[in-house]
Amino acid sequence: MTTDYVLFVHGVKNRSQEAFQQTCLGLLEGIRRSLNDSSRTLKPIFLFWGDLNVAPQQKLVQGLQASSQWQNLLFRDFRRQEIVEFVGDAALYLSRHVGAQVVYRIRDIALGPMAGASSKDRLHLVTHSMGTVILFDILFAGRWEDSRLDQDTNTHDIRQVVSQIRNALFGLGTNPGVGLPVASIHTMGSPIALFSLLSLTGESSHDLTSSLKEFLDALFVLRQGQPLPWRNFIHPGDPIAYPLEGVVPMLLQTSQTYVQMQDVITEKPGLLTRPFQQTIVPLLWGGDAHGSYWQSPTVGKTIGDALR
After folding, report:
1. Which CATH number do you get for residue 130?
2. How confident is the model at residue 1 (pLDDT cuts 50, 70, 90)?
3. First vs last Cα of the chain: how many Å apart?
4. What percent of the chain has pLDDT over 70?
C-alpha cells in the first residue's frame, strides 16, 4: 500500500518544537478530512529548526537595546519581535555556520523516514515562510557544492550530507533515477518570489533554477507527462506572501509546463478592502495573517484535493 509522506517545514518565529508539531497535526487532520479516504496512509515528518537561531538573535537584541537612542525609536516591539526575527532568521540561515546546522537537522530528522520508503511511496512538501526558501536552497542551490566548505571545521562534511539528502529524492543527486518522488508542493506565506531575484539578476551560488528545472523534468517523465501540482497560499493581509504564478514561468522558461502552479487566496480581503489597506495598519497586523495558514480550512482542503 502506498504511503504519502508529508514533510512540514516551518518559517520564522517558531521556537517550540512541541508547538510546531501540534500545529502541523492540526493541518494534517484538515488534509485527512479533505481526502475522506481511510485507506490512505499519511505519515508526517516535522522539520524543526527554529531553536538554532535563538542565542544569536538574543545577543543582537541586547546590543540594539544597549543604544542610548533605542527608547526614542517608534515601533520598538514590532522591530524586535517581527523585523529582527524575520530578517534575523533569513540572515543567520544564509550564513554557512547556521545553514550547515539546518542541513544536519534535515539529515537527522528526515533521512530516516525517507530511506524506509517503498518504491510506490510519495512525498509532499508543505513549507511556510522562510521554510520554503531554506528547503529549496538545500535541495537546489549550488552553494552547497563549493569545495571550500571542506576547509571549515563547521562544514567539513556538509557537501556529503547535502548529497545524501538530495540522493534520497527522485530527480536529484548523483543518481536521479532513484529515490522518493515528490508528488506535490505546497508553499504558505512564502517570500521565495523575492529570492528569485538572485536568479534573475545573473549567476549566483544561491541560484536554484538549473537544479530545479532538472528536478521537475525528471518528475514530469516519471509522472508520464502529468505536471507536478504546486499550490502557493497567500493571505491578503500577509506582507511576506507573494504570488508565484507569474514568477515561476520567468524562472523555468520551457520547463514551466512541468509544474501546475496555482496561487490560492486563503481568505477574502474583508476589512482590507477599506481605504487603509495600503497603510501601516495591515502591515502591523500581518503577523497574525502570516501565521494563519496552519489553521486555514482552505489550505487543508486544497492540499487534500492535490493528494487525491
Report:
1. 3.40.50
2. confident
3. 15
4. 90
Full-model pTM: 0.91
| Domain carrying residue 216 | 3-307
pLDDT for 304 beyond 90: yes
What mean pLDDT value characterizes the chain? 89
Amino acid, single-letter form, for residue 45: I
Give 164-195 as a 3 state SS string: HHHHCECCCCCCCCCCECEEEEEEECCCHHHH
Total number of domains constituting the chain: 1
Three cell numbers, residue 27: 493541518
